[in-house]
Write a structure and sequence with these properties.
The chain is 7% helix and 42% strand. It is mainly beta. It is globular, with a radius of gyration of 20 Å. The termini are far apart. 43% of the residues are buried.
Length: 325
């Protein structure tokens, strides 16, 4: 197989951390450390306090994955998943790896956490199917926490495969990286899929996502929120982040944004498009709110680039009539 040494070194970046003393009261989130407590609500959504808390981890069983497993330990995350109870559990990786990760589908498991054992920095090499039909990790109707892990996917041409797919669930990634190498066509690292009944909420803290044709995150459905802090998103020829077309939520008051993206102290680098907002020809699209705080969109390369590409959004009546409002 390929030599992973260089990629493992690249996938273990020195990412600045933010201590509790610097951030103050909960919720602690990188990029919001300079804000007064009364101003945090303008930038951190109400759901972040719950998603960023670790209190729910108390009492969950811990399953250890090791490349030299001792009795009671496991060799892969796939071996563990069947042992995780419906209430959830923690899968802990001991050592640097690399650990091979076959497509892992998490269904109706409550809370599942993938984390590095203390003192370890594991590398998980994702092994996609030949047709790329399944993501490396998918979760449905649950909560997925990932901490201190580097993900690496090799492909021999073709599109960048999806690494994490979130279906009507919640995701928090902290101190992680995602790298896709060898792709020749665009794909998505983190895919967020919501529906009318289930909201999707995602928080990325100190995360690096990189690939030559890799959108860091795509937001789909009418009720989805993305919060990113102190992270680096490198997408190459693909848009850094993408909003998919979705009709407005029937449960929200007219004109109320039900989709949002907040970038705090985050850098987005692309050779083409920073943000792609695709309405997909929908006449009544779900509202979208974008908030940027101390964040940078950088264009790389000789060809012209675009900060935001707005596709197919309907003009309101005032714009068509010439009203400046």
């Amino acid at each position: 197989g390929p030599d992973l040494t260089e990629f493992q070194q690249q996938a273990t970046p020195e990412i600045p951390t933010t201590s509790a003393e610097e951030t103050g009261p909960l919720p602690e989130f990188p990029g919001a450390d300079h804000l007064e407590e009364g101003d945090r609500g303008d930038w951190l959504p109400a759901w972040s306090s719950d998603l960023l808390s670790d209190e729910r981890l108390e009492g969950l069983p811990v399953f250890v994955v090791s490349d030299a497993p001792e009795p009671g330990e496991f060799r892969s995350a796939s071996d563990v998943l069947g042992q995780v109870p419906q209430s959830g559990g923690i899968i802990e990786f001991a050592g640097a790896g690399p650990f091979q990760l076959a497509p892992l589908a998490i269904r109706e498991k409550g809370l599942v956490m993938l984390r590095a054992q203390e003192g370890s920095r594991p590398l998980l090499t994702c092994v996609p199917l030949a047709d790329g039909s399944l993501p490396a990790i998918s979760i449905s109707n649950g909560l997925l926490l990932i901490e201190g892990i580097d993900f690496l996917t090799f492909v021999a041409g073709g599109p960048s495969p999806t690494v994490i797919q979130v279906n009507e669930s919640r995701l928090r990634m902290r101190d992680c990286s995602i790298t896709v190498a060898g792709a020749t066509e665009s794909g998505t690292a983190i895919e967020l899929n919501s529906n009318e009944q289930r909201r999707v909420e995602c928080a990325l803290e100190r995360v690096i996502v990189r690939g030559d044709h890799l959108t860091a995150a795509s937001l789909g459905g009418p009720r989805v929120d993305l919060l990113v802090g102190n992270s680096l998103l490198w997408s190459g020829t693909a848009p850094c982040v993408r909003l998919k077309g979705s009709a407005a939520s029937i449960s929200a008051p007219a004109g109320t944004p039900t989709r949002g993206m907040r970038l705090l102290a985050t850098t987005c680098c692309s050779q083409s498009i920073g943000i792609e907002l695709d309405c997909d020809g929908i006449n009544n699209p779900a509202g979208f709110e974008l908030n940027l705080l101390r964040s940078v969109f950088a264009h790389v390369g000789e060809q012209p680039g675009t900060w935001a590409d707005v596709i197919g959004w309907p003009l309101d009546e005032s714009a068509e009539s010439g009203d400046p409002e």
